Automatic annotation (TrEMBL):
Keywords of this entry: TPR repeat
Protein name: Uncharacterized protein
InterPro entries for this protein: RPAP3, TPR-like_helical_dom_sf
GO cellular component: protein folding chaperone complex
Organism: Mycena rosella (Pink bonnet)
Cytoplasm as UniProt keyword: no
Domain of life: Eukaryota
Sequence segments annotated as region (Disordered): 1-20, 34-69
Protein's UniProt keywords contain Repeat: no
Ranges annotated as biased composition (Basic and acidic residues): 34-60
Amino acid sequence: MFRGGDPLNPYDPASLDFPDNPFEFMRRVQESQRRLAEIYSDPEKREEYEHAEERERTGETESEQMLQEKREWAEEAAKSAEMKIQGNNAFRNGDYKTAFIIYTACGVLTPHEPLYCLNRAAIALKLKLYETAVKDASDAIERGNFNRVKAHFRRGQALDRYGLAGLAT
């Protein structure tokens, strides 16, 4: 239980550190607001600030938080890899709708992985979803060098079938 005058008591106004000069207090408030506005205007600073807040809330160090994030990413990548096998089997069996759904889920779990966009583009071609195939192949191209030639080929196929072969590059 807190006592009056206890500096750790958040409910006791006497425990707050107010400067004697009210103008100094307002200057501190404005400075804090300016710093927060600066942090929240820059996405990288905002993310760093939010990670620091999360670490403070949980008591984790930065290294512990990074290890936890790596574990989570590895678990998501493993789930995606398992689902990819199911998607491959569905594709081989001609169940394109199921394969499309599975690869969509893989892409949600691991959005940085271009393979799932590339596979989904192939399925979209089979389902005659040419606009989706163009988007997925383009996403695969943007996300990395993995099978870039195949991604360009699939995008070209989709544009050709969509009637926009002149845009294929």
